[in-house]
Amino acid sequence: MRIENFRDLVKSKFGNKLEYATPGNIQEFLASFYSERIGKRAGRFDITEEKASSYEEMVKEFLMSVLENPTDEAIVLLWLLTLELLFAVIEPLERERIGRFLDNLQEDV
Q: Is 45 in contact with 58 (CB distance < 8 Å)?
């Protein structure tokens, strides 16, 4: 996928500055994006479990395989990985922050 097409797709789904991105629609986007391209090109840690003995190995293999892709495809794969990791970190942090807020409200009652 050319970077221009990917940029247009991302903007159409999440807005010009990702203002409409949420953990839920990010997961939907990732699932849809990868499922549509499974038969076309490898992506999303396309490594068999038998080959990798740890998560660290999987990531290393994925990163090295990205270097074998044309530039536009490598950028897309790395952008998707970054997006996925970012929202994987944000969601639990927000849940914890909201939980503390709710706990504090209950203590005040």
A: yes
Structure letter (DSSP) for residue 58: H
Give which of 33, 55, 53 is closest to 44, Cα–Cα.
33
**Burial (CB count within 10 angstroms: exposed 0-12, middle 13-18, buried 19+), residue 77:** buried
| Tokens describing residue 20 | 């409409």
pTM, rounded to two decimals: 0.68
Structure tokens at 63: 């990163």
* 1-46 pLDDT tens trace: 899 999 999 999 999 999 998 888 988 998 888 888 755 544 454 4
CB 80 within 8 A of CB 44: yes
Look at the block and give the residue holding tokens 């074998």.
Answer: 68
CA 46, distance to chain mean position in Å, is: 14
Q: Is 26 exposed, middle or buried (0-12, 13-18, 19+ CB in 10 A)?
A: buried
Q: Which residue has the tokens 């490898």?
A: 42
